[in-house]
Design a protein that fits this description.
The protein has 60 helices and 4 strands. With 1405 residues, it is mainly α. The strands form 2 sheets. The chain has a two-stranded antiparallel sheet. Strands 3-4 form a two-stranded antiparallel sheet. This is FA complementation group I.
Length: 1405
């Protein structure tokens, strides 16, 4: 070694001679010794290279020997890191001097070492890129028996390397190495695919550095492939984890191949690497977002987390949230579409839920994914803002069930709330931001509903009340805005924070201060908010000793807050606090009626939750009642109505809701009496009991006196007899209306009080009937005087009867068979009007519950009690309907109002609908509470489906009974209600159950056998049939049969064609066919929705599917199932539409709707053609035979009939004689509606023609792509732009005697031609031809402008469309440009040098 170093400083000749004396073993020994001892090994290798001339064979071999020895030596791990790095550096400098054969041997050495797994440390791999770079520069290398260029040789090496097995330890080193290798796109793809395949072979901890190196490698290309591979790997890992978790749950074992927390930490690190790479390489970011824009099917929890992390990059934030928003709403829509169609469920596998992925991402983010949490917060609020409830007309919104999300928008909004709630629970750093944004939106969104944010805030309070107390200052700031917020917002906010008020003195004090200020607010809503807040405090701060009420349990139990309320607030403090609030509330008794009304409605709940306040509350109510009570027992009436109203100018307003005051007093009194009688531990409360008995006796005496005197009162005592004015146009009428409502309310309250106090006494019930008779008499007068419009008998004023009383009353009237009560109840039952009144009130309460979710009066806000009311009422109404059929009710037929049975049936329908909307999970409980007759078989309550079907059969029998009576005795209203009930109940059946099959079989049978000419009933029955059929199988075959029946009933558009009489469904007849057409077309629209969705899904899968190329060799016999299903659906649909377009439909809605569906059908066909164009371009596959048949069906059958139908429609809509024209003109002067109708019609027809022509246009393109002549099935379309009714013109011209008259008359005529005179007759008619030629020749001396004007008037378009240019030269003659017949041009004396084409077309330019 020393000698080599010494000689290297001198002449190279001596060094060469010395090196030539050394054998290969000696040389390698020298290198080993120098490297291991770290003694100037670099200088020694430099000397060896200096003494080895690259041009000589000996020198080249020696250099190669050094390379071949040093590479394994550096990889062995025996050398120090610095020594190995120096050696590799020296070798890299000399690599370019090696000949091609040596480079090839070195490259082969590397490949073999990698295959053998000898490159574990990767120290020598830094040299490999230099070798490959030098190798690719070589011009020719021997390979086998031939030669290859250096680039080709390098490609073979890389291909061989990527096809071999890699040691997992060297994967990262190899990936790093390939970054420095110049690679073609094909070579890079080899490398990337190999590295991605190696992911599963590596330990989990090695994945993040490999991801990092891959991302750096992606700078060369294959960005999409790299990202897809990384995401796919983690997606597979998540699936494995989920399967292992399910397996572990089923075996009660913990099965985990990879620890979950370790996997999540690795995913988080990989996300950081990817986001960092995207920040530096925007092309990578664009590729990443582009891959998710076409379809959300590739999303997974990892990719969602990655998207949310990328959203932190400013330039991508908006794109990411728009992308996620679109994916979420599309996912919900697709899920809804699949759930509503058995056809789609059978065709496609389970739905991919983006919502579940996002919730999984929230759950996974617990493992230190801080870079994801901010995106989750933004996404949550983005969804709630975008899809939250919107203000309706006049700023109002329809109230709905907050917990049930039905539409995709509601589901997306609910998902946003779930994301924020879960994020609030698990991530402490974002809690403050979430709370700030929620409270800010509650305060700022005063113009739109904030129910979604109130629900979220309430959930946050329930889930983490103590955490929220740490941010109580933010809640206190919100209190300052209470008096300016809408009342609904205030109510929701105060209800949400009620658990916090019990544990936070400062929060409670701040609220009271704000409420006191609001009590004196100038805004009415501000004062209402104050009353709401004070009543809430009274309900929740109990005075010790208050009676427990099982029905008053709060939404949040105090155990969740872990604080003893009474330890902080003792009994005396609570009592003083509540009495102070009551004194504040007494001020409300002098304010507007709305404020007083809120107070009266709230006192009952206060009393039930805080019974110790009974004395104060009752004293307050009694003192208020005394103001309007006449104490003199001999004076009538017993109430003073004048103080109940106030006048401002000419306007009269209600000042005191007297009936509500009386109702509140009665219900509070009854509850206190019941609670005191139930309280057995009354030893300590004798003084309070005596005090209570005092005001109770006084109130009882007042009620008894009012009852006695109200019975004696006549309407004249209230100045409300028949001669009174009730018109709302003047102040006297308004005053009388207010008086009448107050008096009717008082009567109702007294009726309820007397029923409860009567204890089934006959005499008391007779008094009750006297009260009702007075009530009914006033109600009839009010109904008669309020207007001349027909009012249904069940449309009564808002009743003040309570839910409990209505339920008890109905049970007593219909179901109570107790012998001791029989005599008393007979008094009530004998009055038909009273029974009808009771049922109408029940239906009114049910309707209110259905619309708003609650009812008026006591317990109206209590969900449990309202459901109990529904159960009791259902049982009674069903018993009444089934035991007393409407056929035996003669009284109902004599009067122009619904029979009592029909009212009961309407009530049942509303109950089932309300329960399905408000209590969807308790439908089985409702059904189980119903009892049919005693001898009826009891349904098995454990089987919900059986129980549901049991009641379905009862209503089926009732409907069958109706249909068996014959058409003369058929009650259409009852039948419609029965069908509607069957529709609602059938939704509870599982489509896979045998009962569902029986239901649809029965419905089909009824439709086929029922031939009643009742349009409304047939519409309901067909709707039921369609609703069931779509969940059973595709409805296209059903639509075809219905279309054939409609065609058979209405006849053909050609009067000379006799249609074959077919009757698949007897429900379709002359009177019901029109309604049937609209229903059929609505189902056609639904089928087209499904087909469009399938085509769009197939297109997105084809464009994004990586294996599409491998599946490209499809033949006609191996058609894709989705394509086959789409083709079959469209084929049957075209056949059905072919029947409809030949049907003589009535002008109007049916015609326009059919034209719209035809236009949509051709648009769908065009979409399918575009899909096959795309498939032909990418896969080069043959067109399926079924598709060719579909094209043939559309071209040879449907399209010609479409043009015939358009002609028929226009003749029907626009045609008519002079008398009809006069009528139309008169109508147009009176009403502009026909003009709008005409505008709609003229839009529908061009849309159909345009859709047909677009379809044919793309068929031409597909024919060229597929080499199949699809246009052979298409007939040339009729040019419909310019039409002249020659018969009308000839008849007018014959009336002219002289040529001057002909000239003047003809010119007058052509300027008077209107669109109503135009038809489909071509202008190429002989007589008219001659006339035009003669007219032109006579006036050819005139100006050219005259000729232009003449032609413009004659050929002006009836459809105002711009001229089109057809790409198909065969169809160019069908252009919408007006062209003269060659015979006409030959007979015209045109000005010299004029060109017919130029001046004919010039008016259109």
């Amino acid at each position: 070694m020393d000698k080599i170093l010494a000689l290297s400083d001198g002449d190279s000749t001596e060094l060469q001679k010395y090196l030539s004396t050394l054998t290969d073993d000696q040389l390698t020994t020298v290198i080993n010794n120098g490297a291991l001892k770290s003694k100037k090994v670099g200088a020694m290798i430099k000397g060896i290279f200096k003494g080895s001339a690259p041009g000589s064979p000996e020198g080249s071999n020696r250099r190669l020997l050094v390379y071949q020895h040093c590479i394994p030596l550096c990889e062995s791990g025996d050398l120090q890191t610095e020594v190995a790095a120096d050696i590799i550096g020296l070798l890299m400098l000399e690599t370019h001097t090696l000949p091609g054969t040596s480079l090839a041997k070195l490259a082969t050495l590397y490949v073999e070492a990698i295959k053998a797994g000898k490159m574990g440390s990767g120290k020598s791999l830094e040299l490999f890129p230099t070798v490959l770079t030098a190798l690719s520069a070589c011009e020719a290398l021997s390979y086998g028996k031939g030669e290859l260029s250096g680039g080709e040789y390098k490609k073979q090496l890389i291909n061989s390397l990527c096809s071999s097995r890699w040691d997992p330890q060297c994967v990262i080193h190899l990936t790093t190495m390939f970054r420095d290798v110049p690679l073609s796109s094909e070579e890079l793809q080899f490398v990337v695919e190999k590295v991605l395949r190696m992911f599963t072979k590596l330990d989990l901890q090695e994945i993040p550095p490999l991801v990092y190196q891959l991302l750096l490698l992606s700078a060369k290309g294959c960005k999409k492939q790299v990202l897809d591979g990384i995401i796919c790997y983690f997606k597979e890992q998540d699936v494995c984890q989920e399967e292992e978790q399910k397996l572990g749950e089923s075996l009660d074992l913990e099965v985990q191949s990879i620890p979950l927390d370790q996997l999540r930490h690795v995913e988080g690190t990989a996300i950081l690497h990817i986001v960092f790479a995207i920040r530096l390489d925007h092309e990578l970011g664009r590729e990443f977002l582009k891959s998710f824009k076409t379809s959300y099917g590739d999303l997974c929890p990892f990719s969602v987390a990655l998207l949310l992390s990328v959203a932190r990059v400013q330039r991508y934030g908006e794109q990411v949230f728009d992308l996620l928003k679109g994916a979420i709403i599309k996912s919900f829509k697709d899920e809804q579409l699949q759930q509503g169609s058995k056809f789609l469920q059978d065709l496609l596998p389970g739905h991919c839920s983006v919502a579940q992925m996002i919730l999984d991402t929230v759950k996974n983010s617990v493992f230190g994914w801080d870079h994801v949490t901010q995106g989750l917060v933004q996404l949550g609020f983005f969804l709630m803002d975008a899809f939250g409830p919107k203000p309706g007309p006049f700023g109002k919104t329809t109230e709905g069930s907050a917990s049930i999300a039905r539409t995709p928008n509601q589901q997306a909004c609910k998902l946003g709330g779930q994301v924020l709630l879960q994020g609030f629970k698990v991530h402490e750093p974002i809690r403050g931001e979430i709370l700030d944004q929620v409270l800010n939106r509650l305060v700022s969104k005063t113009a739109s509903p904030v129910n979604n944010y109130l629900d979220l805030f309430s959930d946050i309070v329930v889930s983490a009340p103590m955490i929220l107390l740490e941010s109580s200052s933010k809640v206190t700031e919100t209190f300052d805005h209470l008096s300016y917020l809408p009342l609904t917002t205030v109510q929701g906010l105060l209800k949400a924070i009620q658990p916090l008020l019990k544990v936070s003195m400062s929060l409670k004090d701040a609220l009271i201060l704000v409420l006191r200020k609001a009590m004196f607010s100038s805004q009415l809503d501000g004062r209402k908010s104050a009353v709401t807040g004070f009543l809430l405090l009274l309900k929740n701060f109990k005075v010790l000793g208050s009676l427990a009420s099982s029905q008053c349990s709060q939404a949040v139990s105090s155990s969740q807050i872990q604080v003893d309320v009474h330890a902080r607030y003792n009994s005396a403090a609570n009592e003083a606090f509540c009495l102070e609030i009551l004194s504040s509330l007494r001020r409300c008794l002098g304010q507007q009626a709305d404020v007083r009304l809120m107070l009266y409605e709230g006192f009952y709940d206060v009393l039930r939750r805080n019974s110790q306040l009974g004395s104060s509350v009752m004293q307050t109510l009694l003192s208020q009642l005394r103001r309007y009570y006449e104490p003199e027992q001999d004076l009538l009436p017993p109430v003073k109505l004048e103080p109940c109203i106030t006048a401002i100018g000419d306007q009269v307003y209600l000042q005191e809701p007297l009936a509500h005051l009386l109702s509140c007093t009665v219900h509070c009194l009854l509850w206190l009496q019941n609670s005191q009688s139930a309280n057995t531990n009354a030893d300590d409360g004798e003084e309070e009991e005596e005090e209570g008995e005092g005001y109770q006796c006084e109130i009882q005496a007042v009620l008894e006196s009012m009852t006695r005197r109200m019975i004696k009162c006549e309407l004249e005592d209230f100045e409300l007899d028949k001669s009174a004015e009730f018109s709302t146009a003047n102040s006297v009428g308004v005053k009388n209306n207010i008086y009448a409502v107050l008096v009717m309310g008082v009567y109702e309250v007294l009726m309820e009080h007397n029923f409860i106090k009567a204890n089934y006494s006959k005499s008391r019930f007779e008094e009750l009937m006297e009260l009702f008779n007075r009530y009914h008499k006033l109600a009839e007068i009010l109904k008669e005087k309020s207007g001349k419009a027909r009012v249904l008998s069940n449309k009564i004023p808002r009743s003040l009867l309570s839910l409990g009383f209505v339920s008890t009353l109905l049970t007593g009237l219909f179901r109570d068979s107790t012998q001791s009560r029989e005599e008393a109840l007979s008094v009530l039952r004998s009055s038909g009007e009273f029974v009808r009144y009771a049922v109408n009130v029940a239906v009114q309460k049910i309707q209110q519950l259905e619309e708003t979710g609650h009812t008026d009066g006591p317990d109206g806000q209590n969900a449990e009690r309202t459901f109990r009311f529904l159960c009791d009422t259902t049982s009674v109404l069903l018993w009444r309907y089934t035991n007393i059929p409407s056929g035996v009710e003669d009284a109902g037929k004599k009067e122009k109002r619904s029979s009592l049975s029909l009212v009961c049936l309407e009530g049942l329908l509303r109950i089932f609908t309300a329960c399905q909307q408000r209590y969807p999970d308790r439908m089985a409980q409702l059904l189980s509470s119903m009892e049919m007759s005693e001898d009826a078989a009891e349904p098995d309550e454990s089987n919900v489906t059986e129980m549901n079907f049991f009641y379905i059969r009862q209503f089926q029998r009732a409907l069958f009974t109706q249909l068996s009576r014959g058409e003369e005795e058929f009650n259409s209203k009852e039948a419609q209600l029965l069908v509607s009930i069957l529709c609602v109940l059938s939704r509870q059946l599982k489509p896979s159950s045998q009962q569902f099959v029986q239901m649809i079989t029965w419905t089909v049978k009824i439709c086929k056998e029922t031939s009643f000419e009742d349009s409304a009933f047939s519409k309901g029955l067909l709707t039921l049939l369609f609703n069931l059929h779509v969940l059973y199988k595709s409805p296209v075959s059903l639509l075809l049969e219905l279309c054939q029946d409609i065609h058979s009933q209405l006849g053909d558009i050609d009067e000379n064609v006799e249609v074959e009489k077919q009757s698949h469904f007897a429900i379709i007849n002359m009177k019901t066919a029109t309604a049937g057409v609209l229903l059929v077309l609505s189902q056609v629209d639904r089928v087209l929705d499904e087909v469009d969705w399938l085509i769009a899904r197939k297109k997105s899968r084809t464009s994004s599917d990586k294996s599409a190329a491998g599946e490209a060799t499809q033949t006609a016999g191996q058609q894709d199932p989705t394509e086959k299903a789409v083709t079959l659906q469209l084929g049957t649909l075209l056949t059905a539409l072919n029947e409809l377009v030949q049907t003589a439909l009535l002008p109007g809605t049916c015609t326009i709707t059919l034209l719209r569906e035809l236009s949509r059908t051709y648009t769908t066909l065009t979409t399918l053609v575009k899909y096959y164009i795309q498939a032909c371009a990418s896969q080069h596959s043959a067109l399926p035979a079924r598709f060719e048949k579909l094209v043939k069906l559309s071209g040879s059958h449907l399209t010609p009939q479409c043009y015939s139908f358009i002609t028929y429609a226009q003749n029907g809509e626009f045609g008519g004689g002079g008398a009809d024209d006069k009528k139309k003109k008169k109508r147009n002067e009176v009403n502009a509606a026909p003009s709008a109708k005409l505008l709609r019609e003229t839009k529908a027809i061009p849309n159909v023609i345009f859709s047909i022509e677009q379809y044919e246009k793309y068929l031409i393109t597909l024919s060229k792509k597929s080499k199949v002549n699809l246009m052979q099935y298409m007939k040339l379309s009729t040019s419909r732009d310019f039409r002249i009714n020659s018969a009308t013109l000839d008849a007018a011209l014959q009336e002219q005697d002289t040529s001057q008259e002909v000239s003047a008359g003809f010119f007058y005529l052509i300027t008077r031609v209107t669109e109503a005179d135009l038809s489909s007759v071509s202008p190429h008619v002989g007589g008219f031809e001659s006339l035009c030629c003669a007219f032109f020749n006579t006036h050819s001396a005139g100006s050219d402008q005259f000729v232009k004007s003449f032609l413009w008037i004659i050929f002006r378009p009836t459809c105002h469309r711009r001229p089109r240019r057809h790409k198909n030269p065969v169809r160019r003659r069908e252009s919408s440009e007006p062209r003269l017949n060659s015979v006409w041009i030959a007979h015209l004396r045109l000005p010299p040098g004029s060109c017919p084409g130029s001046w004919v077309l010039s008016p259109f330019v």
